[in-house]
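sorry for the late reply, my laptop died twice this morning and i had to redo everyting from scratch. anyway the thing you sent over, i finally got around to it. pasting the sequence first so we're on the same page, its 203 residues, then the predicted structure underneath. double check i copied it right bc i was rushing
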Amino acid sequence: MKKTVLLIPVLLLFAACSGNHDYSPKPRGYYRIIFPKKAYQQFNGPYPFTFVYPKYAVIEKDTHIAPQKKDKKLMNMQYLLNMQFPRFNGTLHLSYESITSKKVFDELTEDARTFAFKHTVKATSIDQGIIHNADRKIYGIYYTIEGNAASSIQFYITDSVKNYMRGALYFNSTPQMDSIQPVLKFVKRDVDTMIKTFRWKGK
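ok and here's the structure:
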């Protein structure tokens, strides 16, 4: 009798384990991100341009350029700045150069296109938008890079005569669009605001 009592729980356990059940993996969870209130300030340093940028960002000179890791043409840029987003672990790299000839202008704009399309391997799509404001002499191309590419936004703006600025947004982590999409959407508004308020000095 005792053997029968002990056998029943074992049989029940075996039946439960051998039943046909469909299991689905739990979706990956991400930390909830609390975004700061949008607030902007003027950037007006000793440079031939000015714009507004968010108060939760920090702009500093790029002084940590390793020649073996950076493009040689980027090394020749006159001004290299980083707009850091510490809360989001992201950086908008900004590089400025004077246009001295049509050849230089053509090389700069082609380089911008080349840099953007270097991400084709990981990108699902790359969309190009025109930047055009004749009143402020602002012209350029805005690249929106979809997918798990290292850079999600790149652009260049120029007056087509004297000034050229290129920007590239990177997040300092393994690119996973599912996780960075809310942050990217938030920071993209700041990049768009920067471009909309961008001015060349002396105009």
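The chain has four helices and ten strands.
thats about all i looked at so far, will dig more tmrw
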